[in-house]
Amino acid sequence: MTQTHSQSTNKRSTVQIVTMSIALVFAVIGLLGFVPGITTNFDTMTFAGHHSDAKLLGVFEVSILHNLVHLLFGVVGFLMARTARNAVMYLITGGAIYFVLWIYGLFIDLDSAANFVPLNDADNWLHLVLAIGMIGLGAYFSRSNRSVTRS
Predict the structure, then answer these.
(1) What predicted TM-score, i.e. pTM, was given to this entire model?
(2) Where do the TM regions start and end (predicted)?
(3) DSSP for residue 113
(4) Which residues pair with 60 in a beta bridge?
(5) Domain segments of the chain: what residues?
(6) pLDDT tens digits for 108-119?
(7) Quick one: 47 exposed, middle or buried, by C-beta within 10 A (0-12, 13-18, 19+)?
(8) How many CB atoms lie within 10 A of CB 139?
């Protein structure tokens, strides 16, 4: 292996850096969901379901399951960011998952057992923003630089 090849394989593409940044945000949000004070009504947090009054930043309903999903989403993002192609896949697939969550949150009764994550209106609209942002970034990186997605 030549020095040039070694240097080029260690350089991360923009899509990999963006994906790692998004993964870091998800991981930090997942961790912050377990921090009393940053999560209000922390003592009411349940494993899952809508009965929890715990809210991240006093706005977004959280549960242990919700926080673990954010942590897992972060870990998966870091793993997928190893290659540009997988980073694009993470962005598009993750965005699609958040779009489905947005639709789900719009149609379920937030006070029913179907709200097992749990979700509230703030979560629902954040999920739409995440869906648009992640799919948009994934589409941009897959189209703007085809050679990046082949690495």
Answers:
(1) 0.84
(2) 17-38, 58-80, 87-105, 125-142
(3) T
(4) 56
(5) 13-149
(6) 888 888 888 888
(7) exposed
(8) 14
